Amino acid sequence: MLDSRIRPLIDPPLNAVGKALARSGITANQVTLAGAMIGIGAGVAIGFRYYLLGLALVLLSRVLDGLDGAVARATKQSDFGGYLDIVADFAFYVAVPLGFGFAVSANLPLAMILIASFTLTGISFLAYAVMAAKAGRETEAHGKKSFFYNTGLAEGTETIAAFVLMCLLPQYFAVIAAIYSAMCVITVIQRTIAAKVDFP
Hints:
Blueprint: H1 3-23, H2 28-47, H3 51-74, H4 79-103, H5 108-135, H6 156-168, H7 173-198
């Protein structure tokens, strides 16, 4: 919901750093993999109840997630890079709630529900992208991407905000996870309606 509004604010500094990284010989895929490893590390830290360390790793991972695209734009974007980016994103989305599930056993049911909600959201996102590609649709509302990004209530910005709240208020994980799971379900419904309208 907020991604397209935030992009004009964050893209200029990201692009500047991305150009510098590209000049140093660092590739976009290397940045993507580094971000994925740090994101998974966030889940591990959270699993051991190092919530503030987990928060720092969550934020660093998302900075790198923004930088990989900036490096690609400064060099050459590739379809494999787009594939790697989305796989890395969902590895991160699974790692963090899994960490909370390991941290406190009472969190496990809501952690599983949240992971299931992310799975459904991801499927709706990718299924819409496939149909958009078949129809030849394009958009740069979320920046220049390898495939079509359909908007929804729960996007990257909202996910990061939820994870930050979970790390700062781990005792309320179940409440935050329940609310965000509901937002994911609403997003799936939104995309399903959009798919019905756009691809009858």
